[in-house]
Specification:
The protein is built from three helices and 16 strands. A hairpin with a 2-residue loop joins strand 13 and strand 14.
């Protein structure tokens, strides 16, 4: 995508259709509609105060450094719900600086992550596709960042995955010219799949259309596919109100749908897989290099809970 984002707020809303298809060990499919934001991290939409209950962009909703009890994993690829809190609201910050005692902005946190991975700084525009915090709640199963260098050329793509256990993981992708990349699965998402196999992702930067596809490849073949398709609309007061009316309580609805599908799979007899227990990252220590602020720690397998207490999670690859 080239040029500025459209509309009075310099951002876009995509009316989306999300589809999940499980192929093994039993077949299960569903789809639902919603909407997603595409924003420039340096020019976040100046949402009027009266409309901010419907859309806020808070760094703490994505950054491990500002959520000391939550773990972020990091991995590199190659070609081929939380409730409201009192963290900083960046909706009117526009990616600018802040006092030394304030949290990092969304842009600064992402740049810190890229530096820890030996990539960047991006230097150029960074676009983020995500759900905004709405009505005091946020849950982003998948957030995608398209990072550009100072010359405007694509530098990398970051896929940020959240699960319903409060964990999150970032995959650093170096996609080909069609936005395709492959990376090992390293994060527990669904209680019905173990942490194995690999993701084949097609995440081209959106324009008039949004078209994302993620496949989970496991020993024996393709196990799961998720797609996101949408049409772009310029973000502004009228479009936000229209989306809110068509899709009320958008992030709560995503969480509810995920759990409903999980319950259906439990009732069909699909066994729950053990969940690795990973010690949470401590709060970031500014005196330590970013790549050492959360060292890798051994994982311990947790026995699967009985069906009555199992916590249904994403069908697998968590697209919102």
């Amino acid at each position: 995508m080239t040029g500025e984002l459209p509309g009075p707020w310099g951002a876009a809303l995509y009316e989306t259709r999300i589809t999940h298809v499980r192929r093994t060990p039993l077949r299960h499919a569903f789809q639902y509609r919603g909407y997603l934001w595409l924003v420039d991290l340096d020019r976040l939409p100046p949402i009027p105060r009266a409309l901010r209950p419907l859309a806020r962009f808070r760094p703490a909703d994505h950054s491990v450094d500002q959520r000391g009890g939550h773990n972020v994993g990091q991995s590199r690829g190659h070609n081929v719900g939380q409730s409201d809190d009192h963290s900083v609201d960046q909706s009117d910050d526009h990616g600018g600086g802040q006092a030394a005692d304030q949290p990092l902005t969304l842009r600064q946190d992402l740049e810190r992550y890229l530096a820890a991975q030996g990539v960047g700084p991006a230097g150029g525009r960074v676009l983020m596709l995500a759900q905004a915090r709405s009505l005091g709640h946020v849950f982003n199963p998948l957030t995608v960042y398209w990072c550009h260098g100072p010359d405007g050329r694509p530098l990398c793509t970051v896929a940020e995955v959240h699960n319903t256990y409060g964990g999150r993981h970032r995959y650093l992708l170096l996609p080909d010219e069609r936005g395709r990349a492959e990376t090992a699965k390293e994060f527990y998402v669904s209680p019905f799949f173990p942490v194995d196999g690999s993701y084949r992702m097609s995440l081209p930067e959106p324009g008039e259309r949004l078209d994302l596809t993620i496949h989970l490849e496991r020993p024996g073949g393709r196990a799961f596919t998720a797609t996101v398709h949408g049409a772009r609309r310029p973000a502004g007061p009228a479009e936000l109100l229209r989306a809110a009316v068509r899709h009320p309580f958008p992030t709560l609805a995503v969480s509810a749908r995920i759990r409903l599908q999980g319950i259906r799979l439990l009732l069909r007899g699909l066994p729950v897989q053990p969940r690795p227990l990973v010690r949470p990252c401590p709060p970031a220590d500014p005196s330590r290099p970013p790549d050492q602020s959360c060292p890798s720690l051994p994982s311990v397998q947790q026995p699967p809970p009985p069906p009555s207490s199992a916590r249904p999670d994403q069908e697998e690859v968590p697209v919102p």
